[in-house]
From TrEMBL:
Organism: Salmonella enterica subsp. arizonae
Keyword Transcription regulation tagged: no
Keywords: Metal-binding, Zinc
Protein's name according to its UniProt entry: Zinc uptake regulation protein
Example of a GO cellular component annotation carried by this entry: cytosol
GO molecular function: DNA-binding transcription factor activity; transcription cis-regulatory region binding; zinc ion binding
Gene behind this protein: zur_1
Length: 126
């Protein structure tokens, strides 16, 4: 599901939640939508500021509950080193391995995916 549009990403999330019999509330969907519009990772409080543009009553627990759900479903990743969150564009592949690449200059976070090709080799330096 690489390079998906926001609409495609949200539709896929809705489909997976229906299959899993879990509730993707309008608020959770809006948080995922807001995250999908970001170039990279976003902090919970920056996300809260964005959510308050449409839901002025939103409080920190609102965001953290939505993020917990999205993390649990594999729709987002937490970037521990920056205490931020980023959309997973491969959540239809629940067993994928990935690494987060963080730009030292601008802080943009990109998800790198390990692609399996043939056998794995380990080389010792020497």
């Amino acid at each position: 599901m690489e390079k998906t549009t926001t609409q495609e990403l949200l539709a896929q999330a809705e489909k997976l939640c229906a299959q899993r019999n879990v509730r993707l509330t309008p608020q959770r969907l809006e948080v995922l939508r807001l995250m999908s519009l970001q170039q990279g990772a976003i902090s919970a409080y920056d996300l809260l500021d964005l959510l308050r543009e449409t839901e002025p009553q939103a409080k920190p627990p609102t965001i953290y509950r939505a993020l917990d759900f999205l993390l649990e479903q594999g729709f987002v990743h937490k970037v521990e080193s920056t205490n931020s969150y980023v959309v997973c564009h491969l959540f239809d592949q629940p067993t994928h391995s990935s690494a987060m690449f963080i730009c030292d200059r601008c802080g943009v976070v990109k998800e790198g995916v390990r692609r399996r090709r043939g056998r794995h080799h380990a080389y010792a330096g020497g």
